Amino acid sequence: MPINPNAEIEISAFRWVPEFAQGVVRDLRARWALEEAGLDYRVRLLDQERPPEYLLEQPFDQVPCFSDNQVKIFETGAIVQYLGEKTETLLPRDPQGRYRAIQWTYAALNSVEPALINLLLIDIFFTNEEWAKLRRPGASDFAKLKLRRVSEWLGDKDWLEGRFTIGDLIMITTLRFLRHTDLVAQFPNLAAYLKRGEARPAFQRALTDQLAVYAANQPQPEPEGAAA
Q: Which residues pair with 11 in a beta bridge?
């Protein structure tokens, strides 16, 4: 297993998050890429209240941050691209294949994810708001449009560019933001694509390790009468 408390590579992650977020927090992308690359790493766990100095590493107070004694970076797109440069498993070496893989990371993060996250926020945080009830049909249609574009490109291929790359890693983790809906299932080739990605052993190891942290740090309810 690549998790090694003495590893040079370190990523930051949350110690615990609510159930709706478990399995989709973005450190999963870094964990998956590290597993695919076979690189050992350690995890620095953060509470919901981050120390003020964390903003010097991550100005948006999010996870993950990444360091390996050579670079310190944040944002999963940058982290995954950096890791891709270390192994052809994640990023082809020929310029055309390399940049077509990279373009799909940008597409997932910029063209697809905002529409999917918008719908997720409506459904999870604002579902009882009147404005959200009015907005949801349009948000759902816009998310489906993005899914349709990806589906049409994918066609009957296993992966976006014919072989697994960082573009697929970012796209698959983006599609998982809709796991509370049936929208991906409405596109059979996308549903199969998502299933293929999640079946990769490296993904399974990354997900298991992330969820194990949350399970180990699950807040315990106060004993009855403790607040009296």
A: 43, 66
